């Protein structure tokens, strides 16, 4: 695992059940599909399969009749007190909680409901979220998973970091009451870029980066959340689904049906969030996949073999009847110039049509924009908005791994450029 350049989570909150298992170790098998095979295990056994055996048997077990795993589960459950409900959904309920030993330490307890249609009672996206959160523990810009335990009703409970200031979407949309500038955007983008860098260094694709998956802590730190669509990518030969990433933030290679892709898909999403922070509205809000492609062609440029060698090999690509030249930096300046020339340069590099030409997260962190004026705003001084606790509950109760859109027909079809006029 790549070491975080920043701080680790409080050791007092971290469960001994959360044994780290590097993504690259679990993805080297070409048959791996991003979801551990748990068979017919109950939620407690599922957690054990993902998180590993406890390192030691508790010295004061709750009951001598319980096996070591059940004893550890009971001890973890007793560490926290569940309070009022913050959000309720068909997939999960979210509660405010606190540490039993220190009531001032607040947490969010996400109770994932047993799903009868799955053999082990847990949806694959819940398993993925649990797996990747425990792999990525320790980075300050990724939501922290402190503990996991099974309740009496066999539902799985994730004890997560308490993030009471809502998400970036709240701030972007409240144009009348929330004012922010280039220094604030630079601070938020730095936090997001560091989170994505850490994911990619550890061979994890997030695959659903967007403003309402960027939650805000009490100190102003932005945290990347919702890993229900995430998967490891250490095996470059494995075919992956193209139906990931919410449409407005989805890159052209996925819209054209690519089954082999890299961290570049996340970088495109980061670029779309960057653009949205600047103009305070979604940059390319397509209502359908065809319309999304049309907007990309109009606002960024038409993908062709000249600017993207190999694009014609993608299953849902057709040769366009009209070609819009790829926008240069100058074309972006009039609308995105608030972040300066270097900021626009970085934005353009995140939105390269050809994923092989797209900037990487590491290269983003080395870009000159971070060293230009204004400097990033201190996290404590970033704009904040009331009512974030309820928004956190709404964000966390969403069904992870399900896109907020129509998934489209299962029948393969070509994107008709002629229909985009």
How would you characterize this protein structure?
Residues 80-370 form the Protein kinase domain. It holds the Pfam family Pkinase. This is Kinase-like domain-containing protein. This protein folds into 2 domains: 23-161, Phosphorylase Kinase, domain 1, CATH 3.30.200; 168-400 and 407-420, Transferase(Phosphotransferase) domain 1 (Transferase(Phosphotransferase), domain 1, Orthogonal Bundle), CATH 1.10.510.10. Helices cover 30% and strands 11% of the residues. The protein is built from 13 helices and 9 strands. It has helices at 23-26, 43-51, 68-78, 124-135, 168-173, 182-201, 252-255, 264-279, 289-299, 329-336, 340-350, 361-365, 388-397; strands at 80-88, 92-99, 106-112, 145-150, 156-161, 204-205, 214-216, 222-224, 231-232. The strands form 3 sheets. A 5-stranded antiparallel beta sheet has the order 1-2-3-5-4, with helices on both faces. Strands 6-9 form a two-stranded antiparallel sheet. It is globular, with a radius of gyration of 22 Å.
């Amino acid at each position: 695992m790549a070491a975080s350049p920043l701080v680790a989570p409080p050791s007092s909150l971290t469960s001994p059940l959360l044994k780290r298992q590097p993504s690259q170790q679990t993805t080297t098998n070409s048959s791996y599909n991003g979801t551990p095979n748990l068979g017919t295990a109950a939620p407690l056994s599922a957690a054990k399969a993902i998180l590993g055996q406890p390192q030691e048997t508790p010295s004061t077990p709750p009951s001598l009749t319980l096996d070591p795993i059940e004893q550890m589960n009971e001890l973890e459950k007793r560490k926290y007190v569940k309070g009022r409900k913050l959000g309720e959904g068909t997939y999960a309920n979210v509660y405010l909680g606190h540490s039993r030993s220190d009531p001032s330490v607040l947490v969010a307890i996400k109770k994932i409901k047993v799903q009868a249609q799955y053999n082990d009672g847990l949806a694959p996206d819940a398993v993925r979220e649990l797996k990747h959160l425990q792999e990525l523990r320790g980075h300050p810009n990724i939501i922290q998973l402190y503990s996991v335990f099974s309740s009496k009703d066999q539902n799985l409970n994730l004890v997560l970091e308490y993030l009471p200031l809502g998400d970036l979407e709240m701030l972007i949309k409240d144009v009348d009451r929330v004012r922010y500038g280039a220094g604030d955007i630079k601070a938020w983008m730095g936090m997001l870029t560091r989170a994505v860098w850490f994911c990619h260094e550890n061979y994890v694709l997030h695959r659903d980066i967007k403003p309402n998956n960027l939650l805000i802590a009490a100190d102003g730190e932005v945290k990347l959340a919702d890993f229900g669509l995430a998967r490891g990518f250490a095996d470059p030969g494995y075919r992956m689904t193209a139906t990931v990433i919410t449409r407005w933030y989805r890159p052209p290679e996925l819209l054209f049906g690519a089954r082999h892709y890299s961290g570049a898909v996340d970088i495109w999403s980061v670029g779309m969030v960057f653009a949205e922070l600047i103009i305070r509205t979604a940059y390319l809000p397509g209502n359908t996949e065809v319309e999304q492609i049309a907007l990309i062609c109009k606002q960024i440029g038409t993908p062709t073999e000249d600017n993207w060698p190999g694009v014609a090999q993608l299953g849902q690509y057709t040769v366009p009847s009209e070609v819009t030249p790829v926008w240069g930096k100058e074309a972006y300046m009039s609308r995105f110039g608030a972040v300066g020339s270097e900021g626009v340069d970085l934005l353009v590099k995140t939105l390269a049509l050809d994923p092989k030409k797209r900037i990487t997260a590491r290269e983003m962190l080395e870009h000159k924009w971070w060293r230009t004026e204004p400097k990033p705003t201190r996290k404590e001084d970033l704009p904040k908005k009331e009512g974030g606790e309820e928004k956190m509950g709404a964000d966390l109760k969403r069904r992870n791994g399900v896109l907020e859109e129509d998934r489209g027909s299962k029948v393969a079809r070509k994107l008709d450029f002629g229909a985009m006029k």
